[in-house]
Structures
1.
Amino acid sequence: MSDLTHMSIADALKGLESKDFTAVELTQAHIDAMAATKDLNAFVTETPEIALKQAEESDKRREAGKAGALDGIPLAIKDLFCTEGVQTTASSHILEGFIPQYESTVTAKLFADGAVMLGKTSLDEFAMGSGNTHSYFGNVINPWKGSDAKDLVPGGSSGGSAAIVAARGAMGATGTDTGGSIRQPASFCGITGMKPTYGRCSRWGVISFASSLDQPGAFARSVEDCALLLNSMAGHDPKDSTSAQKDVPNFAAAITGDIKDLKIGIPKEYRMDGMPEEIAKLWQQGAEWLKDSGAEIVDVSLPHTKYALATYYIIAPAEASSNLARYDGVRYGQRVEGEDLREMYENTRSQGFGDEVKRRIMIGTYVLSAGYYDAYYIKAQKVRRLISEDFTKAFEQCDALLTPTAPSAAFAIGENEDDPIKMYLNDVFTVPASIAGLPGISVPAGLDSNGLPLGLQVITKAWDEETAFRVGGVIEEKASFTALPQTLSQKAA
Amino acid sequence: MAQLTKGETGEWETVIGMEVHAQVIAESKLFSGASTKFGADPNSQVSLVDAAMPGMLPVLNKYVVEQAIKTGLGINSKINRTSVFARKNYFYPDLPQGYQISQFDQPIVGEGKIEIDLKDGSVKEIGITRMHLEQDAGKSLHDQHPTKSYVDLNRSGCALMEIVSEPDIRGPEEAAAYISKLRMILRYLGTCDGNMDEGSMRADVNISVRKPGDELGTRAEIKNVNSVKAVQQSIDFEVARQIEILEDGGEIKQETRLWDPDKNETRSMRSKEEAHDYRYFPDPDLLPLELAQEQIDAIKKTLPELPDEKKHRFIDEFGLSAYDASVLIAERPRADYFEEVAKDRDAKLAANWVINELLGILNKNEQDITDSPIKAEQLGGLIDLIADNTISGKIAKDVFAEMYKTGNDAAAIVEEKGLKQVTDTGAIEAIVDEVISENPDNVEAYKGGKDKLFGFFVGQVMKKSQGKANPAAVNELLKKKLS
């Protein structure tokens, strides 16, 4: 059955339709794979019973000729999406044991299309982190291993989702991306990750980190699979005032392989000092692949790029400090009693939140405080506008931008922990598009000398995910990335 | 003229600005679909959004926005085409989100003004600084358990309008007139029911004192002022307190004080130093609120006639006194009732009956005009009977009392009880003759110059006719026979 777990979603849908296997068989294969990769610690909560029940129902629907677009496809759900009747924690102690009475819009749409939920994947607490090292439920381990065989981070914050898809424990997964939380782990785990335009997917029922940046998106092992997932997840939701009233195109149909009419911009500011040579080379290689396929390569400039990370680390914590105020021990989640109300708040929040969350709440509270608001928050909003304008101008010269996804391959667990700034630098290539609300896809493009995957990122105009998928598809084809994580290939051997 | 308070060192001027919180009349809350009905069981009207469950998002109630526009137009204010919802951050158990969604530097309504009517008959303009929309908090209940507090979130998320006045108010009378006028306007508009008892209108009063002509003094903000009476009492108390401190050489601290209606005093809640830093910032879950001029114009067309316009019309069109007009316009249903009674009738007579008789008995029985057992049309019917001499004004009062008791039409009561006025001079003459022959002494005295006795004869005739005799005819006949 192990073949079933190596299949693409597109092929699995064909197999299900032609009755090569059932949804129950497909799901069981993934439940077995989850068990075999349990040491990755990808899940906070596994839901095999729910999965099998959903799979049975899926088989019945298919039998009755009523199968949905993703019917019978086993997926992992980032534990930031509220799922009705299933514990939802945001990987935080403060929400341990919290069982929502409601289903997030995105997961509801996936289930309405027949998707099967294998479980809730681990993340950096409240999606704050780039290594999945800030989960109350422990590190997630990347299925890829470097030559020294050390345990590596899967990236973050959607580390559990990326790791389990890479480890063939799920065919795809949901993620959320605030500053790179889908694209960077996709790059670290050698899979494809798509963050759509801000407002493309509803945030209703997704636990908020930074409302003006958070955006649900998809992980899968192919560009087409990501497109299939996004088609199901996207669409206007009247319950989310920031979700856009835009028609959802057929994303998969956009992957034509033909990019002859496209201009691809190479932003010179992304060529940073100290960038590993291998990454620079892979980027160059990517540009040549696209050129070989008929696209025109143009140099463009995004002059305010260097301010993006600082801007992000003001706006995101500011919003987070307010968004996380509701975790006060009064109505749900953990409560640690105290002598009086104030002490109850202090006990609950100091014991309920981890260090990184506390750090960002403090930064956010600081930048919003009287006397600092103008100097930090207002200024950051101004810079945010400049960064957006950079992209608008660049897209007058080109249709898509090509950049590396992350400044390094996956690093060892424990590395970068001493210095939060070093950790924050992981998002240097992903944050600008987040700030501008633009879609970005990371496609695995090669391995570094250590045998670890590296991704390339394609950024397009708002609402033009189709071009991102189209260009991503060409990179995928040219890169023909077929390497398996060492943990899997060793097992197979 | 500014109202001054005499102190030991001379006269002091009181300067007041008010922030009135008015709950918007709407079926559902500002950002959720939960019901806003008053008096439901605790926590029975709480949506996932109101309880700030993880991942829940606010969606602006469009009807509330229309109500706010209506209110802004009703208080003669500028409607801002773009406004922004901001988060006011603070921790409290009855504030589930840990922030209140409010409007900060870009409110939906800008500057405006209303006119207040003072007892001496003068009119004063009070400036409106702004009005914004915000969420109400829930309610903490501290008396349900010996050691714990309970929280009721029914009110959490209900829409409030905060109406901020300029510091144009100069004393308790003006403050009372201001809040009463505001309440009247909101009730006319149907945007707030103005029930201060139920907390749907609450005021914070900013008070300072100064020597006339001086710069503004340091103010204290008085919270929890929940009736017109409390507004006046709290100002009286606070002005006396501040003058005493200043005259003793002390300084007023800028602080927030709480009105205690049981002890009739204000007491310190928190000083300026203890004031919260609310860390306002635009709510990223909500887009800026953009209004089309067409929408504002369309709402403008639906505005009802407002109290001031109505008052002037009543004076001009019906010839009422300013006092009568202001009594009648105090409540919109009252004014509507009057207009229906007055239609095609003697308006002054209609005003008399509505104000003196109807409102008199309704007030006595603590009823609103909407509860009146006598409908406007019926009261009109009664007035018609007076006008066509079917009954006298005196009989009419008895008929009115019967109408109030039974809800029956005046004509039916008159018919049933045989109360029709006697205008047949022959019949009246017979009674007049009877009365004259029965009272020879008084006739003698009257003829001898005791003119006052004329009233006695009229009374006797009316009595004998059970009040049904036409008073004019009685007068005429008596004059003739006694001369």
2.
Amino acid sequence: MLTVLLILIPLIAGLITFGLKGSGPKALGLIASLASLAVTLGALFQFRTAPASLQFNASWIPQLGAQFSVGLDGMGLMLCLLTSISFLLIFIVIFNREYERANSFYGLMLLSQAGLVGVFTAYDALLFYVFWELALIPVYFLCSLWGGEKRIPVTFKFFVYTFAGSLLMLVGLIYIYLQSPDHSFSYASFTNGSVAPQDQSWLFWLFFVAFAIKMPIFPFHTWQPDTYEQSPTPVTMVLSGIMVKMGLFGVIRWLLPVLPKGAYMWSDVAIVLSIIGIIYASCIAIVQSDIKRLIAYSSIAHIGLMSAAIFTNNELSLQGMMVQLFNHGINIIGLWIIVEIIQQRLKIRNLNEMGGIAQYAPGIAIFLVTISLANIGLPLTNGFVGEFLMFSGLYQYNVWFMAVAGLGIILAAVYTLNMVQKVIFGQSNALTETTTDLKANELLVLSIIVVIILVLGVYPKPMLELVSSTTELVNKVY
Amino acid sequence: MNALISTALSGVVMMFAGLFVSNKQRIKYIAIVVVLACLVANLAELSTIEAGDRTLYGMITVSRFSILFNAIALGATLIFFLLSGSAFENVGEHVADYFALVFFILSGITLASTFSSLLMLFLAIEIISIPQYILAGSDKKTPKSSEASLKYFLMGSFSTGILLMGITLIYGATGTFNVADLGLGAGKVNTLALCGIILVAFALSFKVSAAPFHFWTPDVYDGSPTVFTSFMATVVKAGGFIAFIRIFHGAFIGERISADWQLLLAIITAATLIIGNFTAVFQQSVKRMLAYSSIAQAGFMLLAVVSVNTYATQGIVLYAAAYSIATIGIFAVMIKLKDYTFDGFNGLARTQPVLAVTTAIFVCSLAGIPLTAGFFAKYFVLTAAVKQGNLLWLVIVAVICAAISAYYYFRVIIAMYFKQGEAETAPITGGFKVMLIITAAIVILLGIFPGLLLQLI
């Protein structure tokens, strides 16, 4: 029941928000995200005591063998936790910002949360597809309505791109559905291995392209930097912190167990594409002068490593990757929050026009440095745990792959430290001298993020335990 | 049977209504009541066929499926009257006659869903077509309307001739008009019959505007009065498809013969999808875009004709309902606008939020976004084609075309929501808004629970 509640809270709150006025939307958004977090924590508790009670089944379309079947495993729970924490943090950060048509803004944000949670909890293939599409629509509207100058063509490209990928996946789903002996969309009949090996080979691509566009990995990434740049920053946080995880999640939940032989057949290609993405995106990030684009490209590089780790067929690597799903989400949202703060104060995004902020806003500087170091994956920060496990898995798979991908760490250090240096150190100018330090709500949010970074960096065990059940399950069939 | 009689009688009733009732509003209300009566009469027949299909003199067969389809056609017409009935007055003087013609078309459609003889098929197609030629040319003030009518008439009669030729060849090969007795599936394929089947396929492709027989569609749809385009592009097209699927799945079926026409139809389907979708992208007028979109959607419905299985029959019913309702809704909104180009929709979300939201839902349904009826419609026709096994290439073409269709459908949403402008509309009544909301609610309801419709089949 808790699982259904997790979807219903943002859904209903979102629909109500459309009708509210004044500061109502803000308040309801905050309340709903707090409630979601509370329910997630309740589910976390229940997962330890009675995991079966998190499953929920109801009849949906009996003629098709499609059920409204939702549930939570370790990975799903972790991603739901990430979603509810992120939305709460986002709502706190933007609490003192005034959006035009705030009711629609908060309403769409909450609807996208409902869609995302739906994706992470669906245990029925058709339901998964429906939520997969639904998560996209509110985000499309958010970007197009509140984005930057070029928002309309950019988000349109993003929409058509992902829609095309989803449709290919739909064909794959239908094919597997027709192959399944009982003609059902249930997770059990999808994973019972009824798909013939020669079919798995091409079906793999139908799914992989859909997920690869969402992640995004090279060469399907071209929508991403423009969209991140043009979107309003809160939406960019949702996109890069949570939505790209849909792609990685999809691979683990719906690709590896459903098409294990296909995944095995094409793992080399998938890893090579991911590694190309790491190097390519890192190199572009180095020469970026727009801070939003820089972080966007750094995100492609990080996602590339995660998608490479999935296909190594290695338990440790998979576990590291899942932990990284959470940690990358937290870190990248932290970076975007700082970008949002700087952009709010200075109204610029060009790195070369910034500098010397540390003198005037030491708070911003401290948090930027900490989160940047976590983003590079320095030991004692949360980023390190996942990256270490992923690299060790990649090493066992193929030393050369690991060596090339390892360059990504060095390049990440180059562009991240370069960014830190240009933003907070160096000569200040007339504009940056006006920077004011953190407000209370910003301080609160960034402190929470840094606490998560450090705690999970020093003591990652609870997170690793949480996802271990999923890892075992995937490894059993894969 | 009831539907056929009641719609034909309703046509006569409407003609007399034109004589005795001068108030145009009242004529509209009469039409709404009459179509409701037809709907009830049609559904009342369900109880009589529980024992099995009922055949009359070997000419028509009433089945559960046909009654359901008639109900959808009549229901869509009801929505059409409720949303756009007032727009009939803007076309010309003879409002009652227009309603009468619509009812005659409906009787043709009910015949198309029940025929069991090739002669009845021919009659059905003709009864559907002739009133349309008149409706297309009903706007006497603009030469474009007359041009549309003439074009439609010439091309339409030509294709009718081809249909007749096809039926003749099939008769020559088999010696019967009765669909059940054709026996084309058994034994060796007769060349004469095959030629007949091909000619029938061409003629019906013309009627449902499949490529390469689609060239009349944009001109006729663009030239006809918008309110009639709305009907011609939806309910009438669905009627054409029901004839198509019934003759091909009912009569031209068999191990060898199906493979022969399937390849031909698969190529026609692919051409329709590609031409319809790619051309729609370049349109500047929403009305013309919808004309090409109707070709594109015909491509998706053809997927169901090509694939012979139960998903296909379920799919065509769901598709006909989803497509008709959504398109009628968009046309109803468009009729209220001053400017039919995409720019004419600019800023509609601010000036008329209800119209914008409902139009967005209709557009999403046409694009096949989940939680709208259009998604499950597409889902079923795609499943039908995947199930067929050897048509995967066609499925891939179809999904790529579906992605392209999102491009031009979402241009409407972009114009309404993201572009600045003051979309000018005719005065909008509260009743119209309520009707739009109800229609949009039906679209969403069918999108969440398609089982409501499927359990009836």
3.
Amino acid sequence: MKARLRLIRATLMLTMVTSGCAVHRTSVYDGREFPLERIQQISARMDADAVRKRLGSPYATGVDADGRRYWEYRYRGQQSTSAGGGLLLAGFVASQASVGGEVRVVFDATDRVGQVIWEIAGADAYRVLGGGGGE
Amino acid sequence: MSARACTARSRVAFCIALFVALPSAGCAVGGGTIRIAADRSFEPQALEQVAPGMPEAAVVAALGLPASFGVDDRGRHYLQYNQLRIGAQMIAGGTGVIGVNGTFALGSTTGFDVRVFIEEGRVARVAQRTFHAAERADR
């Protein structure tokens, strides 16, 4: 009997703890890792080998609506944090931040870089890689 | 206390424990918000400080570090800021001190996002989008 009462007490204790507070962090990435810090080294008139040397093999290749060949590099992620509190998780707050980056390198008819479209996400990335846009 | 009374009490206690433990461990329902924001929060009024000709560093001083930055399909450099709130209902499949595994059923989005275009280190123009909470179609 004492053992059963101890079990009940332990169950109640566990329930109170588990239902009182919950924190969850997740990071979900899409694509393939590539050197984000080299994105801004890609410039017009570069050939495909020079692009590959800096960014590696593309995650995807294709032809756009204007018939131009392009390479895509993508490594984007969402870092989420959520926290809930109260019995049966009555309420929660969560935050989500985008991280990583993506590039589309569009080649012209001579197979050289004609256009580079890119985005790098995250305040930390801006602190390290940003600033001086268009200068 | 007789043995029968003690057994009855322990059964009741065990049922109460199960009643509380099973829902909280197996299924929980909650409501709240998901915030998607840049490194620092700011009010929409702060955008009024951002005007063409302003240096990029002054934009960062006014609005904080951007959520992202890049070059768009017209070759324009930009800083992107998001200040969004997504109301959500959540049904979780289990709770614990270290984790919640669940399914999010997202609700309406409110807030705004801003793209500050930079040319030669200074603001060229500002584009803004405001999200209004979705209204039910049957209202």
4.
Amino acid sequence: MNAFDWAFALEILPRLLDAALTTILIAVSGFGIAVVLGLFLALGRRSRHRWLAWPTGALVEFIRSTPLLIQLYVVFYVLPNYGLSLTALQAGILGIALHYACYTAEVYRAGLDAVPRAQWEAVTALNLAPLAAYRDVILPQALRPILPALGNYLISILKDTPVLSAITVVEIMQRAKNIGSETFRYLEPITMVGLFFLILSLGLAWLVRRLENRLETAR
Amino acid sequence: MTTLSTHTATPADTPQDAPMVAFRGVTKRYGELTVLDHLDLQVAEGEKVAIIGPSGSGKSTLLRVLMTLETIDDGVIEVDGQPLTHMPDANGSLVPASARYQRGVRGMVGMVFQSFNLFPHMTVRQNVTEAPIRVLGLRKAEARQRAEELLAMVGLEDKLEHYPAQLSGGQQQRVAIARALAMRPKVMLFDEVTSALDPELCGEVLNVIRRLGDAHNLTMLMVTHQMGFAREFADRVCFFNEGQIHEQGTPDELFGNPQRERTQAFLSAVNEAH
């Protein structure tokens, strides 16, 4: 058993940090898309129109009930057969965003359901159109209680990014594995990757809590 | 303002003036339960109608269907001569109203709720300016001025930047009245607006409604348990029972000399409770 080699760790640090940028890019853009898309999925599912509500609900349940890995394979290896060719990074971001949009859709749904009926009645009595009603009255109230849940999904996305190595995306974990197979030293790169995720997750959790507190005092 | 004083008769006949609000054979059911049973009611412009009766008699439902918070199963409701839940199609026959048509008619009606229903994340000022800006298309400055005038009228000009949670129940309810008035409705509905308030806070809300009645030619329908207020304020009192208007008349007639047994029983029960 070798002890942790600090010199080696320092030597591979730039390569790992380089790949870490990819990881962060995937997590942030994937989450950004998921948060917006999830809202529309939630609204679609709540629609009074069956032709919209039912397919949206089916899509959400389908994606939530199948593994991310399979979805990534479909996006990257199967869709090109149907004319949609994406780079590995694009396919990865799209796949992870779609997957998590379905989870955030359920979070939005819970938040929207938690807004009291009386608020909808006030909205009706004031004759507000649906767009203004959602944007100005309902969503601000729905969002506050679900912020922690949304924040947790950001952390989940971050921790799921290594799955993208299966479709050849070189994120931090893939880089660590490559370093390992080149040098036959896994202790340092894998430990450093673990620390990277730990630090980033804790940092994000702290940011989410700060945001919550700010919203709490903003009223 | 009290142009019509002949409301002791069944109001199904067409009155001389077109009514501001008309219910014609309106029926509302919740499953097996019939909450409004072929209800006929006409309210003249500027008339103040108090609606009393035991709970479950359909009095709140009357206001809720007029505000389109509930659908009706049968009959027609008209506001200022326009059908509310139906619209005339190309042939002139009535078909269910589109959302857009309904919003047009609904704009003539405003409502104040028992539990205020203010928007908790908005200041008092934002609560009152939101709908005039978004629905009526008022410019921000106009809406603010209107809000300030109305809040001064309800005695809350110093609470503009407060949030609802920072106000007492009576203050919140006065904001809710200002918020409804900012839309300049022709008809105002008050659904047990003092029921959630401590007795000492009722007075300030009733005073606002009183002042409103004096100053505007506003048509008002109020469901209330405040018999004293109904007697003093209303032009007409309707006693509701089992989804129908069981008896109605001027306050003096209905409170002073109720004709029907059910009305007498209700009023004496209410009197005993006080």
